Amino acid sequence: MRESGNSSRACAAYDWSATDLGERSRWPHTLRLTVDIMLATPWPMLLDWGDTHIMVVNPAYAELAATAYVHAPGGNVPSLRPAPLAAAAEAFARARAGEELALARQRLTFVRGNAPAQVECDLHLVPLRDEHGVVGGVLCAVRESQAPAAPSSGLRVLVVEDNLDSQYLVCEMLKAFGHAPEGASHAEGALKMLDAERYDVLFSDVSLPGMSGVDLARIAVRQQPALRVIFASGYGDALLRHLEFAYLSLQKPYDLDQLQNALAEIVRQARSGV
Fold first, then answer.
1. What residues make up the domain containing 219?
2. From its phi and psi, is residue 83 left (phi > 0), alpha (psi between -120 and 50) or beta?
3. CA–CA dist 260, 154 (Å, integer)
4. N or C: which end of the chain has fewer CB atoms below 10 A?
5. Residue 123 belongs to a domain with what CATH number?
6. Beta strands in 145-263, from DSSP E residues, in sequence order
7. Number of domains the chain is built from
């Protein structure tokens, strides 16, 4: 493992020629740029580079892992794989194949002192391509996951969105607000989840593959009359006219405050018995 040192300035002064990376002047542009970004950012990052899987970490990652790495990048590589790579080896392989991935609540095992310590972290994996489009490595950004809110303090929300990246972001925002979200990518899957569980809110895209979000909401409200509905639409409210149930609507692209305000309004209505 190559640790980046106690500061970006110290890292820049390292004799990289003593490491498997070799002389910095001979690095490909992608590697030089990535290492510069890592050393300048306060967020924990780990780089898995090259066919031999050379590991570079920045000071923020070293602090998170609380591992006594050597101060020079030419130190011995530990026999244990870094925690993110050990916990998400399959995801790293997919990133090596060119896929960008966001993983929530991965349980990482760090060796702190002489004892293992498990920490839940969110990982974001970015494949690093050269000027020819070939992936030369994977940059992994790491952050400790936020503690989940107690279920009683928030709403159970079923998020129906066929864009998996958008679904993930919405669910993460809802968790940050203290709610308990679950995701589905199409109406048919959402109906199965509604058969099995009770939800407070259905938050659905209007346009879905197969059954529309509007038709899904009609069935969902019949199954669970207390269910509140929020639609997200990029086509205005034309498809939402003359619905037989109450709903809130957000126009795409919506922002964080709009989603939070819609959920706050549902909480207010529930408390007032509306």
1. 151-272
2. alpha
3. 12
4. C
5. 3.30.450.20
6. 156-160, 180-184, 201-205, 228-233, 248-251
7. 2
